[in-house]
DNA sequence: TCGCAACAGTTAGAGACTGTAACTCTTACG
DNA sequence: CGTAAGAGTTACAGTCTCTAACTGTTGCGA
């Protein structure tokens, strides 16, 4: 690996950065984004205030790093779930497994999920690599739709997605890494729809809007994913 | 109406509160929740700092008020859309119209939508009347599912919803106001699923995650709602 | 081996913000 | 018309981000 162990100084630096992030995550879990305060982190790590600016350009930079980490972590979780599937898993079961993996990650670390999905923090500091990160999460979903036959309801989406893949070479290349040629539109549409379903069901659950009702979460998401599989005629 | 004009003092008070909220909304639109600052509001309204605490107990109280207003506004928009439907509108068309109304409101005022759907602000200060507010938005969706036949995919959700309605009298009463008896489970399931679909598609669009792709938003939501109508066998 | 540049850390402080305390002026109303 | 409630004020304590200017340390090349 690159960057793991260079000079002793660089190693120490990485270690301190990691410690800062760890404390920031704890604060995030305890009080949301607003509770992440550099001064308090500094106190906890035994440094005095401005020293943290040696490690992060600003509070926003720290949060951005946290966001990137969360995306990577989620993508890894999804990837692990995909790898754990037995080879002859049907597309429907694959979909359910991947969706469950996303939800499990989100429920286990709600604050980190909210960090990803909520409005970033200040204005719209959408980092440019957000799209790539989303691709990392969504990639394993693509193959499930390779043999899908989109119903009339979602065919307009598939058409738009085909157009997108034709215009954007990077996207086309990404899709082609997961899916045989010819199925780009359907696969993309399926992935985006899956994303939207995940965002809806998990977002509601994680922001605690399912308090009164006998908590389902898993049931709701499973139902939506099952419907999605129906919509694409998956086996 | 009650509370419109009482004493001259009370009237002035209401006026000032309204002015404060107006400025707060502008700040919200310009820089997100973090940009709403009492001191700057005070400066703009011509008062000096702590005077605002005569009108709002705290910054959070102000934001909570903004959230309540946003919910009420959205519910009103949905209600208006429902009232505008011609009497013999089919359930599928009704669903599409209501969903489009929600999306239109959200796209017109993204910051207010994010205020509603995102993590409130600090921790989880979920106001107790959030559920009622959500009901106000969701109520008009219920009748669309009165004659619905949930598919196997969503039947587990309907079952859970039936159980919920049996346990929670307030919910049961609310549902019964919109839907004939016997259809509670299906109607509730449809409404919650619709909510989740809306949350997913609109949330992604409003947080700007659809940048690269040929912007759809409306297409995606329409497709999801159409699928939902399929799932419930709506005409 | 030594010198110095890059690095890690410090204190001091400016500026924005939330919220409290103590006080004064004004006005509605009994 | 006297007074209590309300609207507003200044002063201030405390938290936070971030900059400036300075000091101590370390590792690396000459």
TrEMBL record, chains A, B:
Presence of the UniProt keyword ATP-binding in the record: no
Keyword Membrane carried by entry: no
Database matches in InterPro entries: Homeodomain-like_sf, HTH-type_TetR-like_transc_reg, HTH_TetR, MT1864/Rv1816-like_C, Tet_transcr_reg_TetR-rel_C_sf
Keywords in alphabetical order: DNA-binding, Transcription, Transcription regulation
GO molecular function, one term: DNA-binding transcription factor activity
Record-annotated HTH tetR-type domain positions: 14-74
Annotation: DNA-binding region: 37-56
Pfam families registered for this protein in UniProt: TetR_C_33 (PF13305), TetR_N (PF00440)
Protein name from the UniProt record: TetR/AcrR family transcriptional regulator
Organism: Streptomyces luteolifulvus
């Amino acid at each position: 690996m690159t960057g793991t162990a260079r000079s002793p100084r660089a190693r120490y630096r990485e270690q301190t950065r990691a410690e800062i992030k760890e404390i920031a995550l704890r604060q995030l879990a305890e009080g949301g984004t607003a509770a992440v305060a550099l001064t308090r982190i500094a106190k906890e790590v035994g440094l005095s205030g401005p020293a943290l600016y040696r490690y992060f350009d600003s509070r926003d930079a720290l949060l951005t790093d946290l966001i990137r980490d969360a995306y990577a972590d989620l993508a890894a979780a999804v990837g692990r779930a995909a790898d754990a599937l037995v080879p002859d898993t049907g597309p429907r079961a694959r979909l359910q497994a991947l969706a469950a993996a996303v939800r499990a990650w989100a429920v286990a670390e709600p604050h980190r999920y909210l960090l990803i999905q909520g409005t970033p923090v200040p204005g719209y500091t959408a980092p440019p690599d957000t799209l790539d990160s989303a691709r990392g999460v969504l990639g394993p979903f693509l193959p499930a739709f390779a043999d899908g036959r989109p119903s009339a309801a979602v065919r307009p989406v598939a058409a738009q997605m085909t157009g997108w893949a034709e215009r954007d070479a990077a996207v086309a290349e990404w899709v082609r890494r997961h899916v045989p040629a010819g199925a780009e539109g359907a696969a993309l549409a399926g992935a985006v729809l899956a994303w939207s379903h995940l965002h809806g069901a998990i977002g509601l659950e994680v922001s605690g809007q399912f308090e009164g009702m006998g908590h389902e979460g898993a049931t709701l998401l499973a139902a939506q994913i099952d419907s999605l599989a129906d919509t694409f005629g998956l086996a």
